[in-house]
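Hi L.,

You mentioned the student needs an example of a multi-chain input paired with its predicted structure. This one should do, with 1227 residues in total across all chains.
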Amino acid sequence: MKLYCLSGHPTLPCNVLKFKSTTIMLDCGLDMTSTLNFLPLPLVQSPRLSNLPGWSLKDGSVFLDKELKECSGHVFVDSVPEFCLPETELIDLSTVDVILISNYHCMMALPYITEHTGFTGTVYATEPTVQIGRLLMEELVNFIERVPKAQSASLWKNKDVQRLLPSPLKDAVEVTTWRRCYTMQEVNSALSKIQLVGYSQKIELFGAVQVTPLSSGYALGSSNWIIQSHYEKVSYVSGSSLLTTHPQPMDQASLKNSDVLLLTGLTQIPTANPDGMVGEFCSNLALTVRNGGNVLVPCYPSGVIYDLLECLYQYIDSAGLSSIPFYFISPVANSSLEFSQIFAEWLCHNKQSKVYLPEPPFPHAELIQTNKLKHYPSIHGDFSNDFRQPCVVFTGHPSLRCGDVVHFMELWGKSSLNTVIFTEPDFSYLEALAPYQPLAMKCVYCPIDTRLNFIQVSKLLKEVQPLHVVCPEQYTQPPPAQSHRMDLMIDCQPPAMSYRRAEVLALPFKRRYEKIEIMPEPPPRPTQPTSSKKRKRVSEDVPDCKVLKPLLSGSIPVEQFVQTLEKHGFSDIKVEDTAKGHIVLLQEAETLIQLEEDSTHIICDNDETLRVRLRDLVLKFLQKF
Amino acid sequence: MSPHRVFPLPVWAGQDVGRSCILVSIAGKNVMLDCGMHMGYNDDRRFPDFSYITQSGRLTDFLDCVIISHFHLDHCGALPYFSEMVGYDGPIYMTHPTQAICPILLEDYRKIAVDKKGEANFFTSQMIKDCMKKVVAVHLHQTVQVDDELEIKAYYAGHVLGAAMFQIKVGSESVVYTGDYNMTPDRHLGAAWIDKCRPNLLITESTYATTIRDSKRCRERDFLKKVHETVERGGKVLIPVFALGRAQELCILLETFWERMNLKVPIYFSTGLTEKANHYYKLFITWTNQKIRKTFVQRNMFEFKHIKAFDRAFADNPGPMVVFATPGMLHAGQSLQIFRKWAGNEKNMVIMPGYCVQGTVGHKILSGQRKLEMEGRQVLEVKMQVEYMSFSAHADAKGIMQLVGQAEPESVLLVHGEAKKMEFLRQKIEQEFRVSCYMPANGETVTLPTSPSIPVGISLGLLKREMAQGLLPEAKKPRLLHGTLIMKDSSFRLVSSEQALKELGLTEHQLRFTCRVHLQDTRKEQETALRVYSHLKNTLKDHCVQHLPDGSVTVESILIQAAAHSEDPGTKVLLVSWTYQDEELGSFLTALLKNGLPQAPS
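Structure written out for the whole complex:
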């Protein structure tokens, strides 16, 4: 059993497991941090961003100044943003039989895999994962296609050029695998290859392997996967959460008794407590608005935003914010809000019972009804008429490189009354802000990552007791910035096996059993086909020594054995003691039987009848196996 | 282990569309499928006779679980009676929408039975609540482990919101129960689907056993035509419905028709439960058909443009209109009030889209009565047109055959239908699929033999040894192999004999035979041995024959040594020695050598 590690990003994994002649891809996360190296895509013509000076090498050669621009003291690539794909050369991806998706954040590379590698298999995911995943892709495609940029930069990627560039461009990895965003057509084609599954559904793959998604508690429809044969079990734990937010709680019990547990998708901010962060989020928001400022929340169109809206729903009246408009701007805002209300079966118990009343499970329905929350597909159109300040705007993209958020950064960045609050943990907020510096607006970092932290992981591992743990290398040492925090790593026995991008791991697996079915009665012996071929007669009669006879066990008490012999008509029996046992002599038959603890030896003339009789008497004392 | 196990099947849903309640015993597990009430009776016959299940002892001890296929009362109506009045505390499984809607319909029915008709010995509101607390909701396709051995799995059945078919599985034995289903997508629901799960038994409803669907589309056209004609000539149309199920389908039907024909005649829906009911459909939209699910963000099919809330005063408005009003049997409430107002005008029409219980106004007018005695000795003359139109979504004969083809069962059992029609279908199934097909009467038990296969784990060592012999296992063909079966903690493992001895801490007892074969040969022992070697080498082409440096000859693991005869120098003694495991070859060799050696070429 082998594990091909195609992604080095611990929360956006992409691994391929070869197990019992099936090839299973586990997630295909897309590392979008690469976009931080690109200039933002402004929705409205920005004089600042369109008149940036080109950057040239120290030796004065200017061939890069079309591709690289200097902005706020940093160098950015001026082209369509590109994403870092999983490794596509390590294994022939056309041989992948199935792809298992664990949550909507971990499927963003799907179109690259299914559309451009010769992939012909099936993708399995839950319904909410597919629907919300589609929204995320749709939004991304829309953000990028809305601002057409003819230029595609590639000169800077040349190895000899790249090492001469300033950080962080110099240190960007795998730049040759970076690709432009896919199209909606590719997204639709990729999603059409998905087969919907439900939690605890057992899916047979070629009769060899069974895969089962389990609730992972992290997002709507998010799952962990069990991959098992009748005697081996691999658990794949991706983004999971033990906090009570909106999704169904995590199913931990089913992870028990795994031979291997592949652990990915832990919290990216292990030192931040999500509840505390939500509190800070609310108070910062209230403070800014009360002082007449606007609040910008760069976010994804689904996920934590539902929880934030729910908190605000409970908070705004008591904080005296009921007159403040909340805007949610995304091409998929409406769909996201609508979809969240129809997945009752995938929600936590509290929300489920609301549906039975019947009431919408999320209170943002009421926020919309009372006009406190308004949603728009973009800043153009209706929004410009309705727009009132001060206000709170939720919009994407959290990288601040594309989407409507770029406009608000440009619009509000110059006033210290305003605040941008970062809640998504996927991007470093300082790097995200780099092209907007210097900023007058306040920046608050409240990353809300509900995924497992190291304390929860160690508790989980104690609970489910896997034989081996496999995880990205980042989890086997403390984070680089906090190298003294030995508690911020996985601690288990035996030590976790770690992987990094482009590595192939042989998993420590001992397959010992295989399932067969036995019939209550033996089948009729196969009759030898009467062949017409000429053969020597003797060899036709030679018995097939491949028919195995049972092994024997037990020992033969000499006295009882002699009695038995006598009972069966043998007379003239003499018994001699030897060092290890006895010798029974049948003088008349010139036969000698050596009896020892673990062996019996019958020495006789070539008299088959006699031999068989003696054999049967000996066998009476022994057990067959 | 006996080669056959059986599961008896007392079936209550036999040849009658009244109510469904089936008991299945499969590999020692007892499962009750549906718990319906008969809408046609007002006495004890209304509920199934649960004493049938077990004469003594509690139901909870006897039944491993109860499964409800959908929210229609003929499938779940007796549930509170069963769990709270007879007494059952085990798990009750149903889908999420069924769990949401079922208590509402039960409460509705309870109100009619107790509050309106004053029936005693009926379950209370509290009992419905207590009963629902025992419910465990299941997802589609989720494998629910009821206990270590019994598992159930739900499949989409169409029919009504949340309707499901269930697979019940114990080890390698399984039963599929369809409940009610339809194989063609309708206005708001998708078609039933099941994978090729090859159950031992498929229990299918057979309401429309002989109908080959002329039907649904025609009935819809018919319905629209009648409604349209009536409003065209200025008449009013009353459609008494229950709040959930058919009502939504008819609303979608009229809504799309109005949209297409650009009609302006108002359609009303009596208030109260309606909005709530539509809300259920909105929240459980993932259970509806593909088209509705795909477009719900742009346009939720259950938010009707043309259908408005009804106000009591509207009934006296002049001009045409269409009104959906509850309840569906015209026995009380708004639908009856409107009926009384409109009954006298022959331009108006009442369309009954479902079944009516005896004694209700609905039943009376459907059976042709035109003079109704109302309270206060008032006689109401019915001049309006009365139409009956069945819209229930059941599979027709073609659909049933299709499902049998999908699931590939070993045998089929027909329930929930009329005997004559079922007989026709039975023959068809037996002919086409060559499987046995049963149609038990109410209370009759069907027993099916099954041939169990016994799954065991074979050690890879043993399996590889088998493979090494060059015989790859042929798919689905039995073959013989030797090993030791170890049964421990209800698991079966097949291992090699060596491993079995080792695991059990036993040592092997070696049984060895040595036979003396006398040969006439004056030459030296070494030469005799050499002659034996070349003879055997020539004879046994397929075996490994070796001549060892010490002068002995081996054939596989059988050792042959030549020795001088103690008395006769003209005779040599061959000592042939083998273990019990090589007995056949050993005994063959002694017989072969006894025949003497061929003359050496001189």
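You could point out the following to them. Chain A touches chain B through 74 residues (CB under 8 Å). The longest helix of chain A spans residues 127-145.

Best wishes,
N.
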